[in-house]
Amino acid sequence: QVHLVESGGGLVQAGGSLRLSCAASGRILGIDRMGWYSQVPGKQRELVATISRLDYINYADSVKGRFTISRDSAKNTVDLQMNSLKPEDTAVYYCNLLDRLGRDFWGQGTQVTVSS
């Protein structure tokens, strides 16, 4: 089994910054991609940013220029630096890992709240 542990969420004022971190552990049979997704009550989970094992990066249009995803392949970690936060960024943020077998793993989620 693969375990993902997120940290770094919290409450911040609009225009502020937060950094989310996610560490993967367990029986990791190769990582194809890691990333971050967000979810608000009543809506589907949405992509925020992903980074592949070849460092191909994909961002949601709403976060381009404000968020930066990075990874440490040696430590099996992925971070999300969130700058210029907006109230509409408020959500639970989930770390995701897609392994080489095509299996998806999710963290427990971390709350990000941006006050106006």
Detail the poorly predicted runs.
none
Euclidean distance between termini CA atoms: 40 Å
Provide the succession of SSEs: EEEEEEEEEEE
Oligomeric composition of the shown chains: single chain
Give a short account of the largest sheet: 7 strands, mixed
Strand content: over 45%
Rg (CA only) = 13 Å
SS field, number of helical segments: 0
Percent helix among the residues?
under 10%
Shape: globular
Compute the number of strand runs: 11
Which structural class matches the secondary elements?
mainly beta
Mean pLDDT: 97
What does this molecule look like?
This protein has no helices and eleven strands. With about 120 residues, the chain is an all-beta fold. Strands 2, 4, 5, 6, 9, 10 and 11 form a seven-stranded mixed beta sheet that branches. It has a four-stranded antiparallel beta sheet with strand order 1-3-8-7, with no helix packed on it. The model has no long low-confidence stretch (mean pLDDT about 95).
